[in-house]
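Internal tracking record. Fields below are filled automatically when a chain is submitted to the structure queue. Please do not edit lines marked as system-generated. If the sequence contains nonstandard residues, flag them in the REMARKS field before resubmitting.
Queue: standard
Priority: normal
Entity type: single polypeptide chain
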Amino acid sequence: MDEIKLQYNTLDVDTYLALRSGVRWKSLSRRQAEHALKHSLYVVSAYQGSACVGMGRLVGDGAVICYVQDLIVLPQAQGIGIGSMLLDTLAAYVEELRQENTEMMLCLMCAKGREKFYESHGFLARPTEQLGPGMIRYLNSLDK
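SYSTEM-GENERATED OUTPUT FOLLOWS
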């Protein structure tokens, strides 16, 4: 097996769209994907040989809150620690941003069935007694 190498802030749109397709996520337009990558705080890509097999992407304000927006590992590359490597890299980047004597929130929306993975990396599943559930609303042409 080839060694996993990481690259930072170099992911191109075609590869991003291919990764999303490879895990059967919702399709994005090319324009959406370009905009998303351009406005990300940080993007890390995992390569096995010359093939990109995973990526992680952060969005947020870089001072109070950051979100793991995408964490993708292609099915054929899962189970060998790439997801952990990507998530740890994203968390380390947020820690570098954190100002002295402050606290930052690193959040995400977990796919169903992936809770244990994120809990093993220190994330807290919601809801709890103090915190309500994460929520989402999809905006599309049907809303107008």
